[in-house]
Amino acid sequence: xxxxxxxxxxxxxxxxxxxxxxxxxxxxxxxxxxxxxxxxxxxxxxxxxxxxxxxxxxxxxxxxxxxxxxxxxxxxxxxxxxxxxxxxxxxxxxxxxxxxxxxxxxxxxxxxxxxxxxxxxxxxxxxxxxxxxxxxxxxxxxxxxxxxxxxxxxxxxxxxxxxxxxxxxxxxxxxxxxxxxxxxxxxxxxxxxxxxxxxxxxxxxxxxxxxxxxxxxxxxxxxxxxxxxxxxxxxxxxxxxxxxxxxxxxxxxxxxxxxxxxxxxxxxxxxxxxxxxxxxxxxxxxxxxxxxxxxxxxxxxxxxxxxxxxxxxxxxxxxxxxxxxxxxxxxxxxxxxxxxxxxxxxxxxxxxxxxxxxxxxxxxxxxxxxxxxxxxxxxxxxxxxxxxxxxxxxxxxxxxxxxxxxxxxxxxxxxxxxxxx
Length: 421
Known about the structure:
The chain has 421 residues and is α/β, with parallel strands linked by helices. Helices cover 39% and strands 17% of the residues. It folds into 3 domains: 4-127, Response regulator (Rossmann fold, 3-Layer(aba) Sandwich); 141-218, 2-Layer Sandwich (Phosphorylase Kinase, domain 1), CATH 3.30.200; 223-419, Orthogonal Bundle (Transferase(Phosphotransferase), domain 1). The chain contains 14 helices and 14 strands. Helix 2 (36-44) runs parallel beside helix 3 and helix 13 runs antiparallel to helix 14 (397-415).
């Protein structure tokens, strides 16, 4: 196995030495710095490291900003970024992942786990040649800059030449895609073509064959849900109204027989005017198909989705029986986290399996136990959306939206400018 450069940006000399010594023994070539400014210089150099382990709090430029700049630079190859920080709240993890980090670990780090995650990162990098992320040529589009990157697809800002419409162009790396990835991308196109709703991303054009796979959809300039809420410092009632609109978009998808199965903050984009757009239906599944006909690439018994935002039945791997109520649970988690700044379950951000197990079987914390002044009415809404039994949960996203909007209406006059609930 050939050695691979790995950047370590860490201002604590002890941690820097520990990580440097270990990664060298694991077959990496460590490149070290104690501040974010030098980290950016290393990552912008010729033959730059393709893996970066960044501390959050560093002199000059912090790790979050380094991550954002690296991920936003479309001129450079894909770089795997791990944030390694003492900041260990759920909100810190969300902030790191929203900045574009591929991995978030907390200190003191388990070195055995760190080794395995860096080994996995090496496999990803070796599967993605540096030139693979060069700007694609897609007939009919002027491709501009990268909006987001994954192992098998990149989202680009582009302009549809014929209409001069700005779009987000998701381009599949067909040369690297497995049959499962290919099927998932085709499924995502098929699912999103069914939709026509203001709160769902709309597909304008698509193409997929053995040489090229892409689709053009709404370009949303406002950022992710979490970024929008933080940037605009939304009052609680505005947050609730925004989530109600997400529910209305989900209702439209559900009425077309599609469950999302990966509803999370980073899959909800918000325009500058405050309109949410639910995106990334790659794990979308038809409620009208038998498991044998489903093309979403999953089987019963496998855990599908993002652990922090899973429903209990999803965490238990009951994939074949999932319906619209699994998405409702995910929305409940999002709203709970935005209003209470913590996850409804007692989970450790570091441990994926423990998170899955806790959501599958653990209780939800009552909001009034966290914040005694929290509205009892809103608590009932949240707990109903987060009921462990699907039969006692909201049965439709529209029902949840209606209750949320009714709550907002009842509080608007006296609390529209309040920061508390």
